[in-house]
Amino acid sequence: GHDDEKPVHKVCIDDFYLGKYEVTQSEWESIMGINPSEFKGNVSHPVEKVSYDDIRKFIQKLKEMTGKKYRLPSEAEWEYAARSGGKDELWAGTSDEFELEEYAWCKVNSEERTHPVGEKEPNGLGLYDMTGNVWEWTWDRYDEKYYERSPKVNPKGPLSGEYWALRGGSWDSIAVDSRTASRSWGDPEIRLSFFGFRLALSAR
């Protein structure tokens, strides 16, 4: 793996809920009144071209409407869920690269665009598109050396840093960059056609 994935380490996390699907264009538009996505035409595609700062505003509005404390998942939560509950899976749902296209929209099969959420096979927890379609923003700031000193219980990322972590790969990612351990990062104001997200909620 890449250097920022090391060292391999175990963590304990509290119970949480994670969205079955990436947040769609129709869901974003119903809250924000606009659809910023590049790949319009089907509102069941994941919303993209949303920055970390945009998502914070979306989540704040959603909290006000529902009374529920939605948030982004931490990197640790995201990876636990992507690995079907902490299993040793290279991609969400499989470790066989020949099966990857059954689970993910990535560079080899995406035709260079997003696709409606939930069209591929889910992973072992019933979560769709944890690999591919769009990279997913997380709650955590990004630090390539964070794993060398991260806490074992409920790690929430470094306290400072310019960039935020994204996970899962996208329609534009090759297999090695779509693995459950792969990490990427983005400026909190950047909007790209392969950056999206899904929602998390603490169980208590």
What is the overall number of helices?
Answer: 4
In the CATH hierarchy, the third-tier topology is known as paralog of FGE (formylglycine-generating enzyme)
Major sheet strand order: 5-4-3-6
Tally of discrete structural domains: 1
Summarize the helices and strands and which ones pair or pack:
Elements: E1 16-18, H1 25-32, H2 52-66, E2 70-71, H3 75-82, H4 100-103, E3 135-141, E4 164-167, E5 183-186, E6 195-196, E7 200-202
Parallel strand pairs: 3-6
Antiparallel strand pairs: 1-7, 2-7, 3-4, 4-5
How would you sum up this structure, described in words?
- The structure is a single chain.
- The protein has 204 residues and is of the alpha+beta class.
- The protein has a single domain, classed as paralog of FGE (formylglycine-generating enzyme), CATH 3.90.1580.10.
- The chain is 17% helix and 12% strand.
- The protein has four helices and seven strands; from the N terminus they run βααβααβββββ.
- A four-stranded mixed sheet has the order 5-4-3-6, with helices on one face. Strands 1-7-2 form a three-stranded antiparallel sheet.
- The radius of gyration is 16 Å and the shape is globular.
- The termini are far apart.
- The model has no long low-confidence stretch (mean pLDDT 92).
